[in-house]
Design brief:
Blueprint (H helix, E strand, L loop, with lengths): L1 H16 L20 H17 L1 H10 L4 E9 L7 H15 L3 E2 L3 H17 L16 E14 L2 E14 L5 E14 L6
Parallel strand pairs: 1-2, 1-3
Antiparallel strand pairs: 3-4, 4-5
Length: 196
Amino acid sequence: MKKLVWVFLALPLAFACAPHVERVETNLIKDVSGGWNDTDAQMVAQEMITDCLQSGWYSRFLTRNGKEPTVIVGTVSNNTMEHINTDVFVEAMQRALINSAKVDFVASAEERGEIRTERLEQDEFASEETRKAFGQEVGADFMLSGVLNSVVDQAGSKAVVFYQVNLKLINIETNQIVWNGQKQIKKYVKRSKVTW
């Protein structure tokens, strides 16, 4: 009988510890931790790419070359104290660039390596009519790279988290920086005094 009483007493505790999962819309803005999140990555990428494509370098390139520039996204370093998957941010920038229809876009170094391996295999295994030739890649005119920084000012259960994203667009042939963009986000985070 005592065992049965303990089971009934422990049952509500077991249900109380079970996680509650709810599906939400992917475009829903919801901050849970106050840290960098998917909304920040998408918003910053869209705003910075819009600013980049509206600056003077773009019209100068079109005038001189009569064609859209070809761009590649390089490394975006995470210099914050948080673990941030910068791939989400890089993918958001790539999407914004491609969807702008203002630039041509080439694959990343990692993707190019995989494609080159595929071409090597085609040389050996594919028919001559379907085989893709080496030496036909399009070279990028510009590389977009940058850094994500943060500053945290914390006292007790309150914190202000400041994020700054710096991006540079660099002419690959001349090493000239043709655009330097910056976006800042500041978050005020107040945590419950109860900790688990």
